[in-house]
Design a protein that fits this description.
Blueprint lengths: L36 H15 L12 E6 L10 H19 L3 E3 L3 E2 L4 H10 L3 H18 L10 E2 L3 H16 L3 E11 L4 E3 L4 E2 L2 E2 L7 E10 L5 H6 L9 H11 L1 E13 L2 E9 L10 E4 L4 H7 L3 H13 L3 H6 L4 E9 L6 E7 L10 E4 L5 H10 L7 E2 L19 E2 L10 H15 L2 E7 L4 E2 L1 E2 L9 E4 L3 E4 L26 H4 E3 L6 E4 L3 E2 L1 H4 L3 H4 L13 H5 L4 E5 L5 H15 L12 E4 L2 E8 L7 E3 L4 E5 L5 E6 L7 E7 L10 H8 L1 H10 L7 E2 L2 H22 L14 H24 L2 H17 L5 H18 L4 H10 L16 H4 L3 E8 L2 E9 L4 H10 L1 H7 L4 E7 L3 E6 L1
Parallel strand pairs: 1-2, 1-26, 3-4, 12-14, 26-27, 28-33, 34-37
Antiparallel strand pairs: 5-6, 5-9, 7-8, 9-19, 10-11, 10-18, 12-15, 13-14, 16-17, 20-25, 21-22, 21-24, 23-24, 28-29, 28-32, 30-31, 34-35, 36-37
The structure holds one RNA strand of 85 nucleotides.
RNA sequence: GCGCGCGUGACGGAACGGGUAGACGUAGCGGACUUAAAAUCCGCAGCCGCAAGGCGUGAGGGUUCGAGUCCCUCCGCGCGCACCA
């Protein structure tokens, strides 16, 4: 996903000032000679807790940095995706902290949702109990991971003190008409008598009952996100800190299309009506030979009322159209309604068909059929024997209606179109739109793909919608003074409808308007509502008097948001919308909540399975499989450890329960420590790419930390050394020192600008390898090693904070490493006398030359041409040109 | 079908603005240490070749002194999504 490469950190990093030499030749307290992660991780975490290190306090004098990872759904245990997400966020947070920023890194729980109800159905435990238990478990796991989180700002969306503000803002939207009621279609399980989520419908049947799912029209609440379509689309361009890919996806989802709405007049029961369609190809209007409507279109329903065959077809269309994707894959089918409409310009009569490929939700729910120039209409016309008419000419190419050619859909000049003949695409669209408008049959229009956001869910474990239904007054908003409408937490759903609806103490109430007995709304809100503003609440934590307060002005926008690519559309779009609504209500000053976005890749693992003759595939955990390799290490087969028999490889896939290829992060933390888990996650791949789990890789990360520990141990138990004097070093010491500062410059760039933690780790590994090879001959040499080790520990501190905490102490420091500033690069250390240049002849590598760093081009050229191997390859050829790239290479062009 | 990406050793990946392809790690091989194994340390390691050298970044073409990187065509894989009219 390189297009989604992390953007540059736009904020200016303060100048750290001149380089200082902070070392004291003090002896550190005695150091354990073995790396024992459990003990040092507990000690480091205890220190942060006692010092309140990560408690964020607003301070207008300091530049803030709001680093936010998407909060988890409390499903039970942390999975590797969480570990990756929170390690990336923590690394960025700790790095920015070292840069002197006032960092806020909060955490919370997206605690409402369907899995809690499913668990309740399976185990008979109230969703609340299950959810709160999971939260305690996962909070403990997050602490053991060592994330620098401000737990004082924890947000739990299933708590009334949070969701009361969902209700409060919903009422404000209702007052302004942004929230409104209309009917919507839901999946109805006739056996369980309950509404099913899309994911609970499998092949058109209810997941528990297997009953054929029916469609039902029920009243629901909607949020008018389409009013913000223009702004949501337009503002994308300014979100420079977002991956291009996500912006494109959102733009496609919002889907702005310019076209023409065309009304086809008809008479029905003596009344003059118009069938409206939307098209981007108004220039093909004279090629229309039929009009197709969606199964849910009023005309289709009208015709079906008196035609049983059509009624059956309409019912069939409606049954299988669970999702739009599903509808997209089915065979294109249709049926005539027997009705006709008139062409608005030619007056010709056109048949009206019902087509299963026409979407009720987009445009007008009807399309004009132009088989001559639309591939889908062409197939439809061929199947049902409808006329095909050419009305666009492209370079006088011969048109034949027996087979589709791709160029039929190209723009060209109108023919057989009366007075529009000869016009090009744009001119024809203009002219036809103008004439339609003059005739009162339509005109130019902008169409959006985006639809309003239906938030009603017929489910228990969610935020109650604050409405009371009164026989006399209708749907009455709950008065602000009566908020929150508290969700009772002791109910246990059993799969047959919403248990709230059967709880009289919840449902029975008095109408706030007339006082007569009334019924409380039992629908709850879509959980995307909860996650649409939690990032604002972190900045207003604990405020019982208002939804948000002035602290939002300090912390927002989020400087860095980190989460999975699967949220690229819905969550991020809803959050942007919600923020804009709050802005328009005067609650916040900002219009976009997330300045920079990092979408992390999936965590994957190998998949192994057997497919027995009985047919059902059985998956095996990679931990239970032994790989066989040939002499070169190429895998040739795999066997199950338990029975020694072969298993098939299913490649690599996202970790999932169904594929049995998940790895429990807790097991890794228990075995190697949190630092190893974190280091492996950050080293194995750049954050935006998918990451493949590898036991050996985790082992390798652990090995590196153990070696780091050992190198520091050997150093601090070695001879004393004087303070570093950079000016008086021998060549080898100077070289190590140059590498150390070069590495520091690279790692700072990798963390801050590129967000490529994997290459930063590789660079520190190289530095440590060099330190291991370096045999200091003098006390001054030990001072250089000391500096290199200190820099290594500081550089690794954002990634592996626990071992860094311990090693920093061992190197003789009283202040905790977490409070240290990011070290400054010593420009003097980077200075080199000579530089090695690559020499090519005709673009091929033929040698290297060493030249003074300030050598001019003539000197470099001369040195290159003097090189023996260069002379050998140039031979008798004439040197036509010598390209010199300063500090890099010389290319001798000969021929 | 459309849109957006991505194809580099056995594997994960590196190569940042067109300038030494394969950093770093994993797996592998050889050696040291050990009664032995593990751990650790040292070394080898893209392919062909004794070497000199040649060939190599999915395939083919182009631009350039120079292409993994830019452009075109094709193939494969992944993700997203609309039969969007």
């Amino acid at each position: 996903m390189p297009s989604a490469r992390s953007p540059a950190e736009p904020a200016r990093i303060p100048d750290p000032g001149p380089f200082r030499y902070p070392w004291r030749p003090s002896r550190a307290p005695p150091m354990q000679d073995h790396y024992e992660p459990a003990a040092i991780e507990a000690a480091a975490q205890r220190h942060w807790e006692q010092a309140g290190t990560f408690r964020a306090v607003e301070d207008p004098a300091r530049a803030k940095y709001y680093c936010l990872s998407m909060f988890p759904y409390p499903s039970g245990r942390l999975h590797m995706g969480h570990v990756r997400n929170y390690t990336i966020g923590d690394a960025i947070s700790r790095y920015m902290r070292m840069q002197g920023r006032n960092v806020l890194q909060p955490m919370g729980w997206d605690a409402f949702g369907l899995p809690a109800e499913n668990a309740a159905i399976a185990n008979g435990v109230p969703p609340a109990r299950w959810t709160y238990d999971n939260i305690s478990m996962m909070r403990r796991q997050l602490r053991s991971l060592g994330c620098g989180l401000d737990w004082d700002r924890e947000v739990t969306t299933c708590r009334p003190e949070y969701y009361r503000w969902n209700q409060w803002l919903f009422l404000r939207m209702l007052e302004r008409g942004i929230a409104y009621q209309k009917t919507g279609t839901v999946n109805w399980d006739p056996v369980d008598r309950t509404v099913l989520a899309n994911e609970q419908v499998i092949d058109g049947r209810g997941w528990r009952t297997g009953a054929l799912v029916e469609k039902r029209e029920i009243p629901m609440y909607y949020l008018g996100i389409t009013r913000y379509a223009e702004e949501l689309l337009g503002a994308l361009a300014a979100l420079e800190g977002w991956p291009e890919r996500v912006r494109t996806m959102q733009a496609n989802w919002i889907g702005r299309t310019e076209g023409v709405t065309i009304g086809f007049p008809y008479e029905l029961d003596g009344r003059r009506e118009e069938l409206r369609v939307f098209t981007t190809r108004a220039d093909t209007l004279f090629g229309v030979t039929f009009v197709a409507v969606a199964a849910g279109h009023p005309l289709a329903r009208h015709a079906a009322a008196s035609d049983p065959a059509l009624a059956a077809f309409v019912a069939e269309c409606e049954r299988c159209s669970g999702t739009e994707a599903e509808q997209a894959t089915q065979d294109k089918k249709g049926m005539p309604t027997g009705l006709t409409v008139l062409h608005p310009l030619s007056g010709r009569a056109l048949p009206v068909w019902v087509g299963n490929y026409v979407l009720m939700a987009y445009g007008e729910g009807a399309v004009m059929g132009v088989p001559g120039h639309d591939e889908r209409d062409f197939a439809f016309a061929q199947r049902y024997g409808l006329p095909i008419r050419q009305v666009i000419d492209v370079d006088a190419r011969p048109y034949a209606s027996d087979a589709w050619q791709p160029w039929y859909a190209d723009h060209g000049r109108c023919i057989a179109s009366g007075r529009y003949d000869g016009l090009g695409h744009e001119a024809a669209v203009q002219a036809i739109a103008a004439d339609l408008e003059a005739a009162g049959h339509g005109g130019r229009q902008v169409q959006w793909r985006l639809r309003d956001w239906g938030i009603s869910r017929q489910r228990y474990w969610g935020c109650p919608i604050p409405i009371i239904h009164c026989a006399g007054c209708g749907a009455v908003p709950v008065p602000d003074a009566d908020l929150p409408v508290v969700l009772p937490e002791e109910l246990v759903p059993d799969g047959s409808g919403n248990p709230l609806a059967r709880l009289h103490s919840f449902v029975d109430c008095a109408c706030p308007r007339c006082g007569r007995p009334a019924r409380r709304e039992t629908d709850t809100m879509d959980t995307f509502v909860d996650s649409s503003w939690y990032f604002l609440r972190y900045a207003s934590a604990g405020n019982d008097a208002s939804m948000v307060d002035a602290r939002v002005g300090y912390w927002l926008p989020v400087d860095q948001y980190i989460g999975g690519i699967e949220h690229a559309i819905l969550h991020l779009l809803y959050s942007r919308f919600w923020t804009k609504v709050m802005r328009d209500l005067g609650l916040v000053a900002l219009g976009e909540p997330f300045a920079n976005l990092l979408t992390q890749g999936m965590v994957r693992n190998a998949i192994y399975f057997r497919k027995p003759a009985s047919g059902r595939i059985v998956y095996y955990s990679p931990a239970d499989v032994l790989l066989e390799t040939d002499a070169r290490g190429t895998p040739v087969g795999a066997r199950l450890k338990s029975d020694g028999l072969a298993v098939e490889s299913g490649g690599i896939g996202t970790m999932s329960k169904s594929k049995q290829n998940g790895v429990d992060p807790q097991a890794i933390i228990d075995r190697y420590g949190a630092d190893t888990a974190r280091l492996f996650m950050m080293f194995a791949a750049p954050p935006e790419l998918s990451l493949d789990w590898s036991d050996e890789g985790a082992e390798g990360a652990f090995r590196f930390l153990r070696r780091l520990w050992k190198v520091v141990h050997v150093h601090v138990t070695g001879p004393d050394h004087p303070p570093l004097e950079p000016a008086a070093l021998d060549a080898a010491d100077r070289e190590l020192r140059r590498l150390a500062h070069q590495t520091l410059a690279k790692v700072g760039d990798d963390y801050g600008r590129r967000r490529t933690f994997n290459t930063a780790v590789a660079a520190v590994m190289e530095l440590l390898n060099a330190v291991g090879r370096h045999a200091p001959a003098t006390p001054a040499g030990h001072a250089v090693v000391h500096e290199a080790l200190e820099l290594a520990v500081l550089m690794l501190a954002p990634l592996v904070p626990h071992i860094s905490h311990a090693l920093w102490q061992a190197l003789g420091h009283e202040r905790a490493v977490v409070d240290e500033p990011w070290p400054a690069v010593d420009a003097l250390a980077l200075r080199q006398d000579a530089v090695l240049l690559v020499v090519q002849v005709n673009g091929k590598l033929r040698g290297h030359i060493s030249v003074p760093v300030d050598a001019d081009e003539a000197l470099v050229r001369e040195a290159a041409l003097a090189d023996l191997n260069v002379r050998r390859f140039v031979g008798s050829l004439a040197v036509r040109r010598v390209v010199v790239v300063r500090g890099k290479l010389v290319n001798v062009v000969a021929g």
